User: Fold Proline--tRNA ligase from Hoyosella rhizosphaerae.
Amino acid sequence: MLHAVITRLSHLFLRTLRDDPADAEVPSHKLLVRAGYIRRVAPGIYSWLPLGLRVLREVERVVREEMDAIGAQEISLPSLLPREPYEATGRWTEYGDGLFRLKDRKNADYLLGPTHEELFALTVKGEYSSYKDLPVILYQVQTKYRDEERPRAGILRGREFVMKDSYSFDVTDEGLAESYQKHRAAYQRIFDRLGLKYVIVAATSGAMGGSASEEFLAESEIGEDTFVRCIETGYAANVEAVTTPAPPAQSFEDTPAAKVFDTPGTPTIASLVEWANTEDEVTERLGRPVTAADTLKNVMVKVRRPGNEWELLAIGIPGDRDVDAKRLEASLAPSEVEVIDDEDFKKYPFLVKGYIGPEALIANKVRYLVDPRVVAGTRWITGANENGKHVVDLVAGRDFEADGTIEAADVRDGDVAPDGQGTLVSARGIEIGHIFQLGRKYTDAFELDVLDVNGKPARVTMGSYGVGVSRLVAVIAEQMHDDKGLRWPVEASPADVHVVIANKDEQARVGAESIAGKLDESGLRVILDDRKASPGVKFKDAELLGIPKVVVVGRGWANGVVEIRDRVSGESREVAIDDVVDELT
Ligand code: ATP
Ligand code: MG
Ligand code: MG
Ligand code: MG
Assistant:
């Protein structure tokens, strides 16, 4: 069996750090730097050190294997690109500040490629001319450049990063749909092999243009994308790509707000307002200081409670007062509610026109302050804290579209799914892959035609598909680390086994060398900690580096055993020296 060189920590270009880097906020960034996988050069620009580079190469390997398996062919286009093709598609301008632009010595414009649709379309145009040549899928694993506004979390959002981008070329729409499905399946295999928790969500096609588009989002609290999914139907979408109906209109008696009015002693903002006369008292009732965020635009309505007089109801509304007042009037039973017009406002001099602010609360002037969604039956804004004190959560209201739907970016937990078949739950994710049916936007720009069966020119249709290869290294670290360090899945790990010499005895050292040699011969990738450091330091580093299996040659050596630790499950067990290789292969 062909074997590699054992990686000796006494020799490896590696310095682990005890402290988190000052600029790191998320765990993957802290750990990748502390474990000596990456080093910062400038904002969003990082160097890969030996172990980091190995992980990157492993992720690339998995990606290449799955791309090759769907018949995609690897090529490599330059990163340094002339302006003209991007001028032809309009993206030289559209990309704005996101593009790294530069000039050569003759003052000609160049850019560093942020994505390569233009160049791939031109490449195919240069080589192919018949429908018989298609379909074809080409890909590259390439360094991309984007002058991101907020580079973040180390390699998670870099300004220089590695992407696998592929492009499909078909004659028919059906062909494009097939190439798209092939990629979708390949991406599932890639992310499954890497052990990631992810969702596939409907996405907008944005600057790329085209029709169908889906994103692969790794589930993570630190993600910058928010997605919603419907438990009942399995529907999932990036919030950028979903618009849901606003809560249905109800008559006022059916609403939770009406029930509050009818239940004596229920904590409401009304009770808060009636009790609080000073800012301190408001603070005490709220359980926190009043802030500017507590100021909501309002409309005033009069409500006739069953068997009661008209009462003044101030309804806090974010957004356009007139539009919301009309909708509110429509959503409440008309006979019970009257929206007070601007003239009427003058009768209530204690109100700051258009706003109910902390001043009004403190001045004990507003009787009821209700979020419109309470009226519409969706959300409570009052409650009690653990001491039984009344607390109020003034929910910032959301923006509604003029047609009464909820704005895409504002969709959230509890909203009705677009098909009405259930409710949505929201979560955050990191985009790890994105697939597009581009259609003919780019092939039109370059007049990319092939001759069809009848010898007539047919415009080629195109798909584009990206995987964030370097980002995946951070995402794996983010999803799989624990408080002690990194934990790599076998497919991405820089090694298979980490052998720690934790016994000063010369026999034990020689024995550890021999175990490492046998593991290497059996085809495993071995790291051997042969440094002159204390066992404590070595164990800590083994946890930090995150190789899935750790073999400790320690005190048990004299009794003929070594310890095998599983970095992922945390389990450890003793194994006879002669059984180590069998146990690990
Ligand atoms: P994001 O929404 O995170 O900015 P994007 O939608 O701009 O990503 P695409 O143009 O779809 O990205 O590129 C394909 C893939 O490249 C993305 O799914 C992502 O995994 C990766 N990627 C994009 N921008 C970066 C970046 N700045 N650093 C690392 N990876 C990135
Ligand atoms: Mg982006
Ligand atoms: Mg995106
Ligand atoms: Mg994208």
